[in-house]
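Tokens as discussed.
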């Protein structure tokens, strides 16, 4: 039987991408909390089954703005 070698690992780029993704996702959740806490979030976006999609949308918008700033700096 042949030896099966499996190499698992994360490089610096993957770790950086994962970290950026976590920060952007956290920023989306923070933005949702702030907007909702201030009373500016529409009632349709506050039901439990819609909140994850709203947070994901906010995170995508934050990431778009972040990437726009990085690319045009």
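Sequence:
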């Amino acid at each position: 039987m042949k030896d099966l070698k499996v190499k698992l690992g994360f490089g610096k780029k993957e770790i950086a991408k994962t970290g950026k993704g976590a920060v952007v996702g956290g920023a989306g959740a923070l933005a949702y909390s702030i907007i909702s806490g201030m009373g500016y979030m529409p009632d349709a976006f506050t039901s439990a089954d819609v909140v994850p999609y709203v947070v994901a949308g906010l995170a995508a918008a934050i990431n778009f703005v972040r990437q726009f700033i990085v690319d045009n700096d």
